[in-house]
Amino acid sequence: MNVAGWLFVLAVLVLAEIAVRLFDLADSVAAPSATLGAFVDGMSSGTLSDELGRTLGSYVQGFALAVAVGVPLGIAIGSSRTIEDATAVVIEFLRPIPAVALIPLAILVFGLGTPMLRFVIAYAAVWPILVHTMYGVRGVDRMLYDVAATSGVRGASRIVRVTVPAALPSIATGIRVSAAIALVVCVTAEFFVGTAGVGAYMQAQQAAYRLPQLYAAAALAGLLGVAIDATLRSGERHALFWVGEEQARQR
Amino acid sequence: MSARAVARLGGVLFGALVFVAALAIWEAWARSAESFFLPPASEVALRAWDVWPSAGFLSAVGASLKRLAAGYAIGAITAVSVGLAMGSSPRVRRMLGPTTEFLRALPVIAVVPIAIVLVGAGDAMRIGVIAFGVFFPVLIATVDGVRAVPLEIRDSAALFHVRGVERSVRVYLPAALPTIFAGLRTSLSIGLVLVVISEIIGEGDGLGVYIRSQQTLFNVPEMYAAILFLGLLGYALNRLFLVVERRALTWHYGAVGDPVR
């Protein structure tokens, strides 16, 4: 337990509270106590928790789409020089385009609903997944393929039983990097559109100048980021238990 | 030319060929579908040819780049300073740990409305948001880099009684520089994203504002042209960064061999 770290957080919050009350800053900054009140209120009454549910819904859909496209494509590109050469220019062309810049265009094409969110989230998340999968597959130890060959494992079964497990640590890193990027794009798109989700809630609270509610939603977005990262990390540890073991043995 | 170089050139040509084929499919598809939202590639290219050199577009690019430079510099310099302190002192690291963990996971867009309330939807908000987003990757890279400084170097510093700020700046900073550069590079593309995020909201100038105003006018080819420009800009900035990095780290590659990539 990191006592010093949490004491620091507490000290900052107490100082902020005192400053807001002492200098009458409630018009420009929400006091921590008011923020906490708005947070509890929003979560128990459902106004904030419902938006959280909507955000998670579109986030998961878009992210799943990115994994479904990025991993197979990354495996294909990583295992074949020809496919790599064929796709290199197209990918180098598309990859630097910031997904947030696509939001206005995606709104025109898909409308304001979930399909638009699904598209921009998937676009933002697919690149790190694709690139990490590609490098992971390319970095697979040649010896594993030799072993597979002597055991008569080839073709699709080699991909499933050798390539994917060997590239999994790298794929997991790509997924974790993407998760944070996808969340930013998701909340940004919601903020921009303003119909549903934590982002839309923030936009409405800012427009109405309800600062405690605005800060509560921002804190919730941060907690969501922490929770997603923690979930993926623990999932990674469980799914990839053998990675740590191997490293421990080498030491 | 060696056989390897010929194969490499063949690969690049093949990739370019596929790219041209993809453009041709886009063109044919757009012409047959006649969708308002998918203009043919040729139309986008022609519009880009008109739009990109126009004064309005160039001034938008200039405004965005100025914000990127200011936010990037502020974010990177503070991150390296805080990172050096956190990296060299376990106490500071423990103390700031939970705070940085939370702020790092905070989607930057959540900072935007808070900053708008505080300083308005102008340049201060935009530069602040960019600096905030740039800060964390550089901070983490700096902390990791300082913690990974080899024991021999630490011992040498102790032997010569180099400590405190001097040790951080003259020993840890150069030793951690290769890792810091990795963070700086990640931050550069994040910074470009944040330029758009901060500009897409509020009034003023810049590429984000340009894209949004073209959307409200339903000028679809202009939007494609601006989005493509952003892609090219991101690519160019990344290339430029690699050149700078290679220059700045010449001594490092001299010591450990050529860069891996």
Low-confidence spans of chain B: pLDDT under 50, at least 5 residues?
none
- The CATH class of the largest domain in chain B turns out to be Mainly Alpha
Low-confidence stretches of chain A: 246-251
Which of globular, elongated, flat, extended, rod-shaped describes the shape of chain B?
Answer: flat
Anisotropy-based shape of chain A: elongated
Instruction: Report the order of strands and helices of chain A.
Output: HHHHHHHHHHH
- Content-based structural category of chain A: mainly alpha
List how many beta strands of chain A DSSP finds: 0
Instruction: Domain count of chain B, please report it.
Output: 2
Assembly state of the chains shown = heterodimer
The CATH architecture of chain A is Orthogonal Bundle
**Helical content of chain A, roughly?**
over 70%
Overall pLDDT of chain A: 85
Q: Which range best describes the helical content of chain B: under 10%, 10-25%, 25-40%, 40-55%, 55-70% or over 70%?
A: over 70%
Give the chain pair forming the largest contact, with residue counts.
A-B, 63 and 62 residues
Main beta-sheet annotation of chain A: none
Tell me the β content of chain B.
under 5%
CATH top level of chain A? Mainly Alpha
**Individual helix count of chain B:** 11
Describe, in short, the structure shown:
With 251 residues, chain A is an all-alpha fold. Chain A has helices at residues 3-22, 32-45, 47-79, 81-94, 103-110, 114-138, 142-150, 156-193, 198-207, 211-239, 241-250.
Describe this structure in words.
The complex is a heterodimer of chains A (251) and B (261). Chain A is mostly helical and 251 residues long. Helices cover 84% and strands 0% of the residues of chain A. With 261 residues, chain B is mostly helical. The longest helix of chain B has 37 residues, at 164-200. The radius of gyration of chain B is 23 Å and the shape is flat.
